[in-house]
Amino acid sequence: MVRGPVLFSLLVCFGVAAQTPPAAALRQPRLVPGIEDPVPWSPPASPAAMVGLRGEVVYAAGRDLWASDGTTAGTRLLASLCEPYCNEIVALGQGEDVAFFAELTRGYDFTSLRVVRTDGTAAGTFRAPATFYVGYYHYACTSAAVVGERLYFSTLSRDNNSFCELWSSDGTAAGTVSFDPDILVEGGLVPLGGEVYFLGYGHGFTTRGLWRASAETGRIELVRGFHDSPNLSHLTAVGGRLFFFGPPASRGLWTSDGTASGTLSLARFAVSAGAQPLLADLGGRAWFVADGG
Questions:
Q1: Cα(102)–Cα(85) distance, integer angstroms
Q2: Which H/E stretch holds residue 194?
Q3: pLDDT digits (tens, 9 = 90+) for 60-83
Q4: What is the pTM of this model?
Q5: Burial class of 23 by CB neighbour count within 10 A (0 to 12, 13 to 18, 19+)
């Protein structure tokens, strides 16, 4: 008898096909063994945190991290995590050769995070030694992005629990570094061209703008500042460019190639009271929702 949840493997999982294949080309779902009921104090044995890596699936189940190619022989335990305790294991992102997960522990007021790095092998799976605080009551820093073999992620600011600052890690102690703590992250981290971009504050909240971070230089640079904008939002990469909402009054659509001269206003539009504009990458084009009236 199978205990606990099961992980199914389909021919099309993590595929790159642009169309749904005919039913005859699909394999029937089958059980991938290895997931057992956890001990009572560990996270539930649900394969919810999953990434595709090197043609396989790496997933968390309970307090364990597994890898599978969809076969019994190819399903193996990478590491047992959550020592001594955590509430949940979540996936932060993956590159071509590495993936990053996090052990989350929620307390009454703070939520802490420990970074776990894996290349899909037991020897290449290990936890970064540092513990970071990423949540304070209802405020949380949830941004993460992988560029090459490095994870970029936001944590609570060391000076103010209501703001987020930027860190980077390759999973080792020496390779886990902070950027300028005076530059604060708003929203998501967006990789583009080997660097990471984000919207945020700098210089004592006097400069709100589009920023670029590079682990190679260890620096954060201002791409374009907006001193008169009450809000910047929805940073998205589409077709090798960045798009976001900005001035005037957060009702302008902007684009950027990562340079000051290449950061340009494209359109202005009205937004109904209480409405939130949306911006998404669909089919290599930037789509946005606004009030056309």
A1: 13
A2: none
A3: 888 889 999 888 888 999 999 988
A4: 0.82
A5: exposed
